[in-house]
Design goal:
608 residues; alpha/beta; 7-stranded parallel sheet; 5-stranded antiparallel sheet; 20 strands; 38% helix
């Protein structure tokens, strides 16, 4: 369920009501009203939607990516969605916040796949098998720690979809009616005239295309099942106004509220089976196929055991989605859930897109970036770091190879790797230990501006140490606010401050034979290693392999790498430090090798 998608247009109203009228009393044309046969009246829910029992600390949480459409291989936009969700999942696990799951997968039904398979000279099942395997490989290769990989072709999922359809039907949320309009196959939805423009096709013939994506549309007339979306306009508004954190970042929350102030027509939720065979048939009506988006959205329920055991997780769910599928997740999906007697998800975390040299990624432009090639060129952690460091959810971000090399070399290879190398070098630390901290050299003070004559540390040193001490909470707040890039900005700033601290005091110039100088030398190294331990711990959700190497070099045991027990400079606060005097781990060489500029752009080349 990922890809450029526009709002589905469905102007049908309930057949039981008289046709709406134009000013002056004339009824709307039948094409805009629809001859509909309502299945049963929409009933009010007799009980509140079922909620997951666990709340507060230790509660369960499902994080989800979209399930990716299996009509083509993965690109960096797919990977970005997955990495955002993965970093949140890893960070939560390090906090010891309670049971968690990370779900992803592939969306394998729909007309677009049916047509793509025909064009490739294969069957839809064979195409989906190949493409789903590519997505599974890409996510695994990128160290995405998913716990569940859903395929909509799986029996467990199809069973959940049929049950969900039954819940909508039994609640009176569905009716059958004639429908016609402009249908966009690549986007799997109807588009209103306001979202179309005139164009010419490859043969020079006039045609209509989507304003947003440029995809061609075709006039389609069908008898479909309709979902009474219009009946949920007020409940959706109330849900969002009662839950201002339900959609983040805030501009996307405002966008959804704006949509809910506009007309909210009913939604076509099936296609004629004569047109679409590759999908789940409507229960008790073999002439219709369930709309691909309804099918796909139910993956968030099927993965947690719907309809039997989903109550253990639902609605403690955070969806990570691209802005192009926001309406499907923030309007259609919550309304469908309400109609089925379930609560909306807790949060919808929205991100923007990646462009390439200022242009939207497009197969026709030949600029789709291949994640396999990028990981091969820049390493798993290097490419993870770049996407999470440079990606800003509120706005589109631009990709080009030179930027990857510059960011990763500057911040991982030079700033972080260089700091570890300098502070653990045998010329500086010949004992290869975590040296002792001296309170006389770095005494605790109430006001760091009044440090004259109180030790060797300067006011600037106290300010820097205070910044590092506050870093874990800052990072936690930014992760909670879906601003991972800001968390990384803070870490990088502190890494640079630590380098400045080390450079400012030039430990290589201190005389080891002087006991006072040795105390200060050990304190400089102790403070630097403590900073590195904090950075390594905080960076685990983003660059897991590099962080593991860093922490192993500092002899930090696996059970000492959690965020809940992370302390900094315990000796400065008069407490014991478990690392003091500990032998450092093996020297495995350079922490992160500098990248070379790519000679070839990382363009997608994988064939289906």
């Amino acid at each position: 369920i990922c890809g450029a998608c526009a709002a589905a247009r469905s102007p049908l109203a309930a057949a039981a009501a008289p046709p709406p009228a134009l000013p002056g009393g004339s009824p709307l044309p039948r094409r805009l009203y629809g001859g509909a046969a309502m299945l049963r009246p929409l009933r009010r829910l007799s009980r509140p939607p079922r909620r997951a029992a666990a709340t507060g600390p230790g509660r369960r949480l499902l994080l989800s990516t979209p399930i990716f459409y299996a009509n083509g291989p993965p690109h960096i936009g797919h990977l970005y969605s997955a990495l955002l969700a993965d970093a949140l999942h890893r960070h939560r696990r390090l906090r010891g916040a309670g049971p968690g799951r990370l779900s992803t997968g592939t969306d394998e039904h729909g007309l677009k796949i049916q047509q793509a398979a025909a064009a490739a000279g294969t069957s839809p099942p064979e195409l989906c098998e190949r493409v789903s395997s590519l997505f599974h490989q890409a996510l695994t290769h990128a160290a995405v720690s998913f716990t569940d990989f859903t395929r909509t072709s799986e029996p467990r999922h199809q069973r959940a979809v049929r049950y969900f359809w039954g819940a909508l039907r039994d609640g009176g949320a569905l009716y059958k009616g004639s429908y016609e309009g402009w249908y966009c196959t690549p986007e799997e939805c109807f588009l209103p005239e306001s979202q179309l423009t005139e164009h010419r096709d490859a043969q020079g013939r006039p045609c209509k295309v989507s304003l947003e994506t440029g995809h061609q549309v075709h006039w389609t007339k069908e008898e479909n099942y309709m979902f009474r979306l219009s009946a949920f306009q007020d409940p959706l508004r109330k849900w969002l106004r009662d839950n201002p954190q339900a959609i983040s970042p805030h501009p996307f929350y405002q966008r959804v509220l704006h949509w809910l102030e506009e007309d909210l027509p009913d939604l076509s939720v099936s296609r004629e089976r004569s047109r679409l065979q590759w999908g789940i048939p409507v229960p008790s009506d073999s002439t219709q196929t369930i709309y691909v988006w309804v099918d796909a959205l139910v993956n968030y329920l099927s993965v947690v055991g719907y309809p039997e055991t989903h109550g253990e997780w639902w609605p403690a769910v955070h969806h990570v989605v691209g802005k192009d599928i926001l309406k499907f997740h923030a309007v259609y999906w919550p309304a469908l859930l309400m109609a089925a007697g379930l609560a909306p998800p807790e949060r919808i975390l929205v991100h923007s897109h990646w462009t390439v040299h200022g242009q939207k990624m497009s197969k026709s432009l030949g600029n789709v970036i291949d994640p396999f090639a990028c990981i091969g060129q820049y390493t798993v952690d290097g490419f993870r770091y770049f996407l999470l460091r440079q990606g800003v959810p509120e706005r589109d971000c631009d990709y080009y190879d030179e930027k990857v090399v510059k960011v990763v070399n500057s911040e991982l290879a030079d700033a972080l790797g260089g700091l570890l190398n300098r502070s653990t070098a045998l010329s500086i630390n010949p004992s290869n230990t975590y040296p002792c901290f001296s309170e006389s050299c770095f005494p605790k003070v109430l006001d760091y501006r009044e440090t004259k004559g109180m030790g060797r540390a300067s006011a600037e040193d106290y300010e820097f140490v205070a910044s590092v001490a506050s870093l874990p909470l800052q990072v936690a707040n930014y992760f909670e606010g879906f601003q991972i890039y800001k968390a990384l900005e803070c870490i990088v700033l502190c890494v640079r401050q630590t380098n400045s601290f080390f450079q400012r005091h030039r430990p290589w110039k201190l005389n080891r034979k002087d006991p006072a100088e040795q105390l200060w030398l050990d304190t400089i190294i102790h403070v630097t290693l403590e900073c590195l331990r904090v950075y390594g711990t905080l960076l685990q959700p983003v660059i897991p392999h590099t962080a593991d190497r860093l922490l192993s070099r500092l002899a930090v045991e696996p059970e000492e790498r959690g965020l809940s027990s992370l302390t900094f400079l315990a000796r400065y606060n008069g407490k014991s430090c478990p690392f003091e005097g500990r032998q450092l781990g093996p020297d495995t060489g350079i922490l992160f090798h500098r990248l070379e500029k790519s000679r070839q752009p990382q363009i997608e080349t994988k064939k289906l």
